[in-house]
Amino acid sequence: MRLALGLALFLACLAAGCGGGGGGRLSQEEFQQQANAICDKFDKKIQALGSPQSPADIPAYVQKGVPLLRQGIAELRALKPPADVEDDYNRMLDETAKAIPAAEKLADAAEKNDAAAVQDAIKEGQEADSASDELAIKLKLDGCAAE
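Given the sequence above, the corresponding structure tokens read:
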């Protein structure tokens, strides 16, 4: 009897999505609310870093900003969006992630005082940001799109 009750509770928990591995997806409203909250949180953290005032400030700024970007992307990837938006959402995150190597190239170029490489890295980052913003707007994730 005790084994049957334990098994029944375990199966009920699985069906309800208990535990870490449940396949339960967020509703559209929950998804938008949670994704926007994550984006807003990390946007504030990145804003708190201030802006580099000179090319010499860029490497330190990138060194502080990239871990925040990685952490934000990881939190966003942990969300389970509705199935009908999952592909666009994953593309948005992939585009956002492209900002990381672009930022690292920017820091390297600034450190070497290579103006052409700085411009290339900025362009690369802007393209990723633009593609990510376009998808965020499509997904109604206003907190994840640049203002």
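The CA atoms of residues 52 and 58 lie 6 Å apart. Try to locate this feature in the token string yourself.
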